[in-house]
Amino acid sequence: MKLLGKLLLLSTLWLASSAFAFFDQCKDLFPAQQIPSTAQVGRDLCFDDFAIYYSPSDKKPIYTVERLNGVQLQAPHPRRTNQFYEEARLPFNERALLTDYRGSGYDRGHNVPAGDMTHERGMAQSFSLANMMPQARQNNQGIWAKRVEEPTRMYIKRAQGDVYVFTGSVGQTGSIGRSRVTIPSHLYKLVYDPHKNLAWAYWVENTDDAQMSAPISYVELVQKTGIDFHLPLETRESKSSKPTEKSTSAPRQLVGAWYPVFFDQYSPDKVAAIISNIKAGRIASIEIQYDRNLTLAQNLAQEIQAQSSMQVTLSQSSPPDSGNVSYERNRVIAIVRSK
After folding, report:
1. Which pTM was predicted?
2. Strands 283-290 and 332-338, how do they pair?
């Protein structure tokens, strides 16, 4: 009985701790480096320019976070790639799959917008399916893009210093695909400007005919989502006695992360770059994802393994059907984990 009691205690402690996110490599993306608190169990994923707290059960983000400023957003941006891929850091049974969106009628809706990305690797990372949610098509391309994402960027371009943006979704109206990716009922985007001690949130129904309403308060969003984002908001009485958080627009160092390298055909330059990074000790592991082009996938794996000590794993995936999907079906993606 004592042994059983200990096992139950350990199990309870593990479940409790699994709901905590640490984000050790990217805490600087959060206001005052404070990680939000939520009862939802998830996995913390760091990327170069954003972070995701991901739900293994819903197969979509619980929330994402970005630290942006006007200097970034007014700089030249890389070309949008539209190259979606499955998140190799997640166990297969926790991943959203490209096939899940096939014939679903829902878009692969970005939480962190591709339009916020300022360099090519960040752009590529933003198309990880870990960053996607099933979003009503007209909503994604209409009200969300034009009246949520674009106004947020316009505000940040005028703001002084860094602005923090959290994005996520809540509720359930069903699911899509074999992985049962949860279709959320509502989407939100929280904007926090520490320089002005100001925060507000967009709250939008996940439907094609959703109507735009006035932004809601930070307190209302916490009540609706059950997430305490730990924003260091000051009351009017305390504002004069406490210094406002200083924003820093210095560029971040790229963190160790997974990033995709796309092969629509064999590219000796791309292969050479991967092998060079392996030999330089910059790469921890590689997973090669493919659909129809097994020959190219095997050739890439064999060449990488022959010229380095790296063992490469193969994973078959399948993109959703659409009128112009043939390029995705023949594409091979090397998912590289950098140290």
Report:
1. 0.76
2. antiparallel
